[in-house]
# Entry
Amino acid sequence: MTGPSSARKYPGEREGQRPSPGAAKPLGGIRVLDLTNVLAGPFACHQLAHLGAEVIKVEMPGTGDLARQLGQDEDLSARNMGISFLAPNPGKKSVTLNLKTPDGKAVFKRLVATADVLVENFRPGVMDRLGLGHATLRAEHPRLIYCAISGFGQDDPLAHRPAYDQIVQGMAGAMAITGTPETAPLRAGWPVADTIGGLTAAMAISAALNADPRGGFIDIPMRDALMATMGWAVSNYLVAGVEAVPAGNENLTSAPSAAYACADGLLNIAANKQEQWETLAGHLGLGDLIRDPRFRTRADRKANRVALNSAIEAVLATRPAAQWEEELNAR
# Structure
């Protein structure tokens, strides 16, 4: 027999209420207030919307999200519907509220009373100065999940600093190991700190929705979220004392693994396992290299990668990349 203490808890369940039968997605019935701007926060709430949550984007009248002005379509940007805004905000509802006025705060608090989650990415302290910080709202709504996304965390010595994606990439060390020795430090070609910060927030919020009792504060520093994905580089330094270096298209843990020039362009090859290396060498007519002491083991191939790459590229350069790709993927 099942008692009340073991009854199934539904993510969208409020007191005396369960999600409707049509709420088929995991977060069906969940309401999220999205007070975020630019990318990390909007991307986090975008993931929650994909999972079925009702997301209400709250923006300042007149200005709104900075991303409304950004993107490569100047006409859309001029109409405050820039591509950078459209990409992470589809499927959300929208409201403008001036949180600096008594009326705006009153309306906002009524919204909070209906919400399960609040997400903001203001600089730490902004919501407290508005009288709408976590402690204030949690006192009135103990089941509210409050998520704050920032560059460095709410209590970090750098908490007061603004933090766009490029700054966080640099502070986390990602730029230092991106590119080649000649070009590094190099920014990643997409806003990796923003997107990883957003994904981390969405994952944490999803977990918090299944906590019992529900409610609490989630602090997401984008720098820390990005560093968490760089575990191999950080761990190699902390454990082995080996500092990560930029290696371009090479994989420093294995060889052959690089982008190789073919007759008409580049081909990405990663033969990390011994059997993969032997298959590659055999198909390229380089079977003799399998027995060559310079390339016998992974460690040997890493130590002699320049000679190995030269031998491989000499063969690949004789035919188009697409032809090699089709043949090698069929092996």
